[in-house]
Amino acid sequence: MLFKIIADFYVFCRITRLNKIYKAYFQTINMNHGRKITGGKYHANRKKKLYERKSQDRHVVIDRETRIKTLRVRGGNNKTFILKTNVANIVVSGKAKKAEITNVEATPQNMFLARQNRLMKGSIIETSLGKARITNRPSQEGMVNAVLIKQ
Question: pTM for the full model?
Answer without folding.
Answer: 0.65
